[in-house]
Amino acid sequence: MSATLAPSPTEAPAPALAPRERETLRHIAAGRTYLQTARHMGLSTHTVDAYLRRIRAKFNITNTAELTRMAIALGL
């Protein structure tokens, strides 16, 4: 009899990043500004800001240093 491992009820799965959120995070973690990121991705700086706000909300992150640490942990 084999049992499957399921996450414990107290462990909530980590929220997933959308592809564009992941790309935005990678640029910011690499030290690019919002403007540089926006130009590279073909977006407005407002859209870059919106992606980063969404990421911060998903992971309860309050600053760019934490974003960068998360990017490193994700291997971005």
TrEMBL record:
It comes from Streptomyces bangladeshensis. Residues 1-18 have a biased composition (Low complexity). Signal peptide: none annotated. InterPro entries: Sig_transdc_resp-reg_C-effctor (IPR016032), Tscrpt_reg_LuxR_C (IPR000792), WH-like_DNA-bd_sf (IPR036388). It holds the Pfam family GerE. This is HTH luxR-type domain-containing protein. Residues 1-21 are annotated as: Disordered. Residues 10-75 form the HTH luxR-type domain. Keywords: DNA-binding, Transcription, Transcription regulation. PANTHER family: DNA-BINDING TRANSCRIPTIONAL ACTIVATOR DEVR_DOSR. PROSITE patterns: HTH_LUXR_2 (PS50043). It comes from the Bacteria.
